[in-house]
């Protein structure tokens, strides 16, 4: 089985978010970048398929050379090869087109992408890859088993979960639950050394216009001080929620 | 040219989000000087939509669409958009809508903006405000394509009544066979889901163990709220993953979010920040959550929560 894991290069979850150039650009100053958490759950599941079912795992990212350390980390975790599409990741649709182009040239049985990145939260790349490559697609995937060309997938739905059966080629939008938090792998020294020898191929992008463009960013208004209510006077809290906040 | 809105239903009844996206679509239609057409799938009686500004309903009845399948639903909406020559399509932020919207975008070669929280600031160029960086910021996004898809964030617009004359028409799109077969659905039908909830009651490690969740559920019951939990709680297996809210869990955009025994790590706050009013109950007055909350009670959850539940019961009884 050939697996492609799409890796988004995103600010670490604890990053303070700031903007530069008149609030038009994300300020990367002092920001630590990581593998998008939703992608990392998928990558770890791909490692399971590699160990148990002999899958070959390629990781891919659309971005500039500055995103290569993130791909190397994925190689250190255990992926066999990496591809970087040499284009700025502008909007989800254009990223999906670049990825679909690579997938069309070099077919994969299973494509795993996070359900959304934690930076732009577009939630569009996995579905668009599926649409562009005519593959089956399951989003919000929290369980995945593959047997030959059949797959059993568990999808999180509002208020519960759904089990579906489908066939490869398949694209999934992954998230926590695909593997547990405790299954995530921290690369060891041997993995890091081996990653240096693994192929990282840079491919040039295709022409793909941006369907959406970021014009400007805003930060939420600073929050007023919390109103503290004494634990002995909860009637006041009920009254505030009813009369002031008007939420009950 | 009408604005097309996909109004989701469950077992023939509209979800609350459906009425919200209909209200939103009406506002956009007013900006564009056009009407609102809704597409419904396997709904018996769509007349309720007439109260929220919908002018026309395309009513699809199709056994192939009995259970949700993203491809089939996207095909139906695409054909409705083509029939109506719609340039703007509005969907909700439910799990199902977020599942089908990217497929619809590819089908119509449309730009798609998700998590949109306001009506377009401008319709030419077409710009919308959406949440980004997991609620740590807002992005003003311009949709450049002729056809535009807007995913409206839950509870961001609210329900706006707008009555008019509703016409209903049967619509029979051609649906191809789905490559995905639903084997089973495991869903608590008697509980409010986090996605639909106006109020969410959430608890963290401060509750000390899964056996203590009874009081959280009682508080949620009184408020008609959904229950949720912090990441450590779901990692410890005290509560199911589906209740985990935060950056890697479910996003919450409720009107009221009550956090019990949750310290307020940055990842948790990011996931729940879109909630309008936040109440925190914690023994530790230094907990970071107090800086992000509107109302706070410094106290022992085991004393405060049952008392608050009683007070709310009394309050509700008087209403």
UniProtKB/TrEMBL annotation, chain A:
Keywords: Electron transport, Transport
Start and end residues of each Electron transfer flavoprotein alpha/beta-subunit N-terminal domain: 23-212
Residue intervals passing through the bilayer: none
Keyword Transport: yes
Keyword Transport belongs to the record: yes
InterPro entries xrefs: ETF_a/b_N (IPR014730), ETF_b (IPR012255), ETF_beta_N (IPR033948), Rossmann-like_a/b/a_fold (IPR014729)
Family per record: Belongs to the ETF beta-subunit/FixA family.
PANTHER family: ELECTRON TRANSFER FLAVOPROTEIN BETA-SUBUNIT, ELECTRON TRANSFER FLAVOPROTEIN SUBUNIT BETA
Protein's name according to its UniProt entry: Electron transfer flavoprotein subunit beta
Source species of the chain: Flavivirga algicola
The organism's taxonomic lineage, starting at the top: Bacteria, Pseudomonadati, Bacteroidota, Flavobacteriia, Flavobacteriales
TrEMBL record, chain B:
Gene3D superfamilies, sorted: HUPs, TPP-binding domain
Residue ranges of every copy of the Electron transfer flavoprotein alpha/beta-subunit N-terminal domain listed in the record: 3-182
InterPro entries assigned: DHS-like_NAD/FAD-binding_dom, ETF_a/b_N, ETF_a/FixB, ETF_asu_C, Rossmann-like_a/b/a_fold
SMART domains: ETF
Pfam families (alphabetical): ETF, ETF_alpha
Keywords: Electron transport, Transport
UniProt key word Amino-acid biosynthesis: no
Similarity comment text for this entry: Belongs to the ETF alpha-subunit/FixB family.
Protein's name in the database: Electron transfer flavoprotein subunit alpha/FixB family protein
Organism for this UniProt entry: Flavivirga algicola
């Amino acid at each position: 089985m050939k697996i492609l894991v799409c890796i988004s290069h995103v600010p670490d979850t604890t990053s303070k978010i700031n903007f530069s150039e008149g609030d038009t650009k994300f300020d990367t100053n002092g920001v630590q970048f990581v593998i998008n958490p939703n992608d990392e759950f998928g990558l770890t599941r791909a490692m399971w398929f590699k160990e148990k079912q002999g899958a070959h795992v390629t990781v891919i990212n659309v971005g500039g050379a500055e995103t290569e350390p993130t791909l190397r980390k994925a190689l250190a975790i255990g992926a066999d090869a990496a591809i970087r599409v040499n284009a700025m990741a502008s909007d989800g649709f254009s990223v999906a087109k670049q990825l679909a182009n690579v997938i069309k040239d070099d077919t994969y049985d299973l494509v795993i992408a996070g359900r959304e990145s934690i930076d732009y939260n577009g939630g569009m790349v996995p579905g668009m890859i599926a649409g562009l490559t005519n593959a089956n697609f399951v989003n919000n995937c929290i369980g995945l088993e593959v047997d030959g060309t059949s797959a059993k997938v568990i999808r999180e739905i509002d208020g519960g979960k759904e089990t579906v059966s489908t066939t490869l080629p398949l694209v999934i939008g992954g998230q926590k639950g695909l593997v547990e938090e405790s299954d995530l792998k921290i690369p060891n020294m041997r993995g890091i050394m081996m990653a240096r020898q693994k192929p990282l191929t840079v491919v040039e992008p295709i022409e793909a216009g941006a369907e959406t463009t970021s014009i400007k960013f805003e930060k939420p208004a600073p929050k007023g001080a919390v109103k503290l209510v004494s634990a002995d006077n909860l009637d006041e809290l009920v009254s505030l929620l009813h009369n002031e906040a008007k939420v009950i | 040219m009408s604005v097309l809105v996909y109004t989701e239903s469950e077992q023939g009844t509209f979800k609350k989000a459906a009425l919200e996206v209909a209200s939103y679509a009406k506002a956009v239609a007013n900006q564009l000087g056009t009407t609102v057409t809704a597409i419904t799938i396997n709904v018996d009686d769509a007349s309720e939509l007439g109260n929220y500004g919908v002018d026309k309903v395309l009513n699809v009845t199709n056994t192939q669409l009995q259970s949700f399948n993203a491809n089939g639903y996207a095909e139906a909406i695409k054909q409705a958009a083509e029939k109506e020559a719609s340039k703007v399509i509005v969907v909700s932020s439910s799990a199902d809508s977020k599942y089908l919207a990217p497929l619809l975008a590819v089908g119509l070669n449309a730009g798609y903006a998700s998590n949109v929280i306001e009506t377009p600031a401008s319709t030419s160029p077409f710009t919308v405000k959406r949440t980004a960086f997991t609620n740590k910021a807002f992005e003003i996004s311009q949709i450049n394509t002729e056809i535009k898809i807007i995913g409206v964030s839950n509870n961001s617009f609210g329900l706006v009544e707008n009555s008019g004359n509703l016409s209903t028409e049967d619509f029979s799109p051609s649906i191809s066979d789905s490559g995905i077969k639903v084997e089973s659905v495991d869903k608590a039908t008697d509980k409010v889901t986090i996605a639909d909830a106006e109020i969410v009651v959430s608890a963290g490690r401060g509750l000390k163990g899964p056996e203590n969740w009874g009081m959280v559920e009682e508080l949620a019951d009184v408020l008609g709220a959904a229950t949720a939990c912090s990441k450590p709680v779901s990692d410890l297996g005290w509560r199911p993953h589906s209740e985990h809210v935060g950056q890697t869990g479910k996003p919450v955009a409720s009107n009221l979010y009550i956090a019990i025994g949750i310290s307020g790590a940055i990842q948790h706050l990011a996931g729940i920040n879109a909630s309008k009013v936040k109440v925190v109950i914690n023994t530790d007055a230094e907990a970071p959550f107090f800086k992000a909350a509107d109302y706070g009670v410094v106290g022992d959850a085991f004393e405060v929560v049952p008392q608050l539940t009683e007070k709310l019961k009394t309050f509700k009884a008087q209403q």
